[in-house]
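LAB NOTEBOOK - FOLDING QUEUE
OPERATOR: T.R.
BATCH SIZE: 2
PURPOSE: Compare the predicted structure-token outputs for two unrelated chains run back to back under identical settings.
PRIORITY: normal
REVIEWER: second-year student, initials M.K.

ITEM 1
FIELD SEQUENCE / FIELD STRUCTURE:
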Amino acid sequence: MASFASSCLLLQLVLLISLLHFGSAARSLAETSDQTQQPMLFQYHNGPLLTGKISINLIWYGKFKPSQRAIVSDFITSLSTSSPPSKNQPSVATWWKSIEKYYHLSNAKKTSSLSLSLGTQILDESYSMGKSLSQTHIKRLAGKGGQSNAINVVLTSSDVLIDGFCSSKCGTHGSSTSSLIRGKSSKFAYIWSSKFAYVWVGNSETQCPGQCAWPFHQPIYGPQSPPLVAPNNDVGLDGMIINLASLLAGTVTNPFGNGFYQGPKEAPLEAASACPGVYGKGAYPGYAGDLLVDATTGASYNANGLNGKKYLLPALFDPSTSTCSTLV
């Protein structure tokens, strides 16, 4: 009996010592990690920002109702400071004006202005490239828009499958090179190349609204809270506006991968993506923040646009204070 008790005591001591060693090793590993890991800073990488008068061309791929196209086109028009100012504040134009801080902090010899306007709209309702697209297809579609002083925005309908959509992204932005032959005769002709910026956003309504249209749909993971009422009564399109706004902010401040961002160049956190899930003051995981609520519809929003439209727009990272700045 004494032998059995001694064996039990010995086993307990061995377990206790093992746990102490494990705890010590884990703590040392954490301390080493904290000491060696360098903080990721949001910084300017000395590349160009988009400047001047920029047209935003919309390429609609798939089936969209006229009312859905109006939600996006009115949003784009609301970004312009030259448009009639919205009587109701806060406004989409006010949100976009905060982007100017990035231009003041860039290394340009003089502050350059940026003016956005709605350009051409191209409808591809026949699914000319099919209903399952790669990022190469997206670039080809983006190339249908103007390639000088333009951002070409590809918008895909809810029945179009995009490589990586939902699993790793709700949209993307990038740049592509176009080549044009200039000259009146073959003897004096030359090839002129230029880069143009593009954005792609998909309608997640039937594929992954919990991921790409939150907070207007129940999230697929994390804290669960009731979904908010979409300001334009269209979960898919109101979700697209959130992602489009985020990507446009990233496009103008980091158009070619060497502008403002934080983290690795291959997966940067940009002007809006550096503030994920933040739409109003007091936001925390699962809660979008203290938003405005339409007294008639009960819809949540934080920005007023033209033609009576209301939108929910993401917080923007303020590079001068290193904080996420919200409209409300």
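ITEM 2
FIELD SEQUENCE / FIELD STRUCTURE:
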Amino acid sequence: MNVTNTKCRSPLSWGQSTIDSQRPILYVCIIASFTHAMFWLQIICCSALRQKTMQWIYAYLITDIFLLVRFFFLFIVHTTSTDCQPNQSWYLFISYFEAIFDNYLNILGVYILLALNICRYAQIARNRNVCVTHVRLLVAAHFGIYFIPLILLIIQISVGWAKLDAHGGEICDLRYTHIYVQVFNVLIAFVFPLSCNVIVIYASVRHIHLVSHLRQGRHHVSAREKYHRSLVIQFLVFYTIWMLLWSPNIIVYQLQNKNGKIVSICQLLNFVEIVLDPMIIAGLDVRFFHAWKKNWEMLKSKLLREQRRIRPMVVDHSLKIIEQH
């Protein structure tokens, strides 16, 4: 009697070509995990960095962490799955999670940066700390940013404008049934927040220019003016780097299949941006420099105290001999 063993393939298992395309992203994500760990360790150790005014920066970096967790989770699932017939609920959860969550987090990042820019404009032009004067509006902004993009994605799937595109061995994706839906998504996810950011940055720069023009006769520049200029420069540098590395993935996601080579390259650039985010933010914000300097001084003084405490005692035996005589 002949027995034929047929080895089936799990629907959740990636093909070798897909694994090879995702491997460079895996290496970048490992590096990003270290840069983010060092950044958040600094925040845990230094209470001066835990301020309400920095909530949008930290919210943005938390989306980075979720993107890293998403990638590691899906990479493990797709490279270790061996079940030929996985549970249907588990299969649908993984498929939709893979197809939706990346785009959702990218949209969050775009609008969090917009909220950060608006708050800084209010601080520059109106001299108002939004975190203190408009707490309810701030809470509403958080809820709107976190839930509205998710609701829009769910509506598009529910009415059939977006359909799950899942094939064995490949990355799960959403396939849009109309070009109008893709154009709408590009407008909402990229064009609108980008335009708003450009307008807010222009308004901030114009306000600073007008203030400096009115005070041309003064030789002394106030600390507030210097701080406002630094805020605008920080955001311009950060947003420029973001535009170069992050934005291509948002645009390509709406127009290309996730299994294409172009999408893989844009995803890699996206995760390179995640590696750089903590270093850019820490490098541009003087508060992190002061925190590092303070921690270094504390560490140095502690090491000096330890050295003095364990320094061996030197005994002069000649004095003891003289005392005995």
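REVIEWER COMMENT (ITEM 2): The longest helix spans residues 88-125.
FOLLOW-UP: none requested
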